[in-house]
Amino acid sequence: MKERIITGILGGALFVSMVIVGGWIFALFISIVASVAMIELLKMKKIAPISLMGLISLLSMWLLLVPTSWFDQVMPSYFTKVEIFVFMILVLLMFTVITKNTFTFDQVGFVILSSVYVGFGFHYLIMTREIPEYGMILVFFILFLIWTTDSGAYFVGRKWGKNKLWPDISPKKTIEGSIGGIVAAIIIGTIFYMIVPIFPSYLTALFVIIVASIFGQLGDLVESALKRHYAVKDSGNVLPGHGGILDRFDSLIYVMPILHLLQLI
Q1: How many domains does the chain fold into?
Q2: In the chain, how long is the greatest CA-to-CA distance?
Q3: For residue 4, pLDDT beyond 70
Q4: Within this chain, do residues 15 and 126 fall inside the same structural domain, yes or no?
Q5: pLDDT tens digit string along 198-249?
Q6: Domain hosting residue 28, numbered range
Q7: What is the end-to-end Cα distance of the chain in Å, rounded?
Q8: Are residues 21 and 114 in the same domain?
Q9: Is the same domain home to 87 and 141?
Q10: Burial profile 111-129: b = 16 or more Cβ within 10 angstroms, e = fewer
Q11: What is the pTM of this model?
């Protein structure tokens, strides 16, 4: 427990500091974090990170991760990120033939989906921080919503939880806890909005709060399903007492793309 608390304080302080600093330093920090997360996924699938397939996987993730401004400085303007990513998918499919199915179609699908999951998730975190004037506040707003949802779900579920939410994936989570997490997020999110009104109306803020709370919980379940499928307790051990990077960022990297795709931020 002591180790968990120390790791939480130090890790939280580092992440908050990076969010405050912002700019290329934050983007570089998140790129490193995302790389560790991708390596955790590769190890779950038993793909060696330091191998041809592992390096291609990391490269495809980085392609989706990096800010467009970085990409435009490196690649000619007539190549888009999507076009290059599609080309990499075709290369991966080619490897199923070259390796005589040592590298399987199933592994190709895993690499593609993992690249999108990790790459886009952290990409939209970087993009949110880069929003002029209120990017930093917006990142903290989403973080508070996720942390509040987790805490509310834990305490309400422990006190009143009786009906299992999704026992096959996460046996301890309850419907009562999930609802309690959403209610807690609405309360804290409303207070945050009253202090810092970063949205044009409270109705918009309320919609963001509810979406972030619900999909934050779904993001946690997605990662739980991954771990259960690959029979691992934690995604990694880089954070003593907390597991891996994906164990800590699963909700955040699921929520950020959703909010952007719904054009809420």
Answers
A1: 2
A2: 60
A3: no
A4: yes
A5: 999 999 999 999 999 999 999 999 988 888 888 888 787 777 666 788 888 9
A6: 1-130
A7: 37
A8: yes
A9: no
A10: bbebbbbbbbbbbbbbbbb
A11: 0.89
